[in-house]
User: What shape does this take?
Amino acid sequence: MNFDIREILLILPGIILGFSFHEYAHAQMAVWLGDDTPKHQGRLTLSPWVHIDPFGFLMILIARFGWAKPVEVNETNFRNPRRDDILVSLAGPLMNLLIALFFLLLMKATYYIPSTILPDGVYDTVMDVFDYTLWINVVLFVFNLLPIPPLDGSHIFFGLFNLKHTAFFYEFFTKGRIILPLLIISNALDRVIGPPIALIYNGLFSIFF
Assistant: This one.
């Protein structure tokens, strides 16, 4: 899908924040749980330059599907490998949800700023950026929880059912990676994640506005 220049500029902050904070959350959680691999690889930072994959970043702008550089972890360093891998996987999507909540609160606060401080054009632009950032991070939250490799949800799902190191997991992880591109190309992905995204997005507004 094509975006005009204004839309691209409005959506950029949400993408950059969403990707950077998501990967940082994975890295920080891994370090907290005993694995210093992300720290040694320089991933324990909020710098977008470290986390953003150039091609994946470009794809999300032009095709609404992209990716960041995944944080590498070594499960053998965890104190409780099964539990800690689930926690590391959850950290990224939960960070996106926190970002969405934060920008919703910013929208609420900005709503009360007098028009004499922010002219109409500036006010509308600021609110659009906040709204895009909120929306994008809700999308990232829902999308990454899908139990499809290589998304975080697959690690969470197979970890919860203690299936991660079974032959079924390795076969599914290898062959299942085809599922995600097929869902995207067929537009089936929108039908799968569209309703929960709308539910969360509208639900947040109904609570705070």
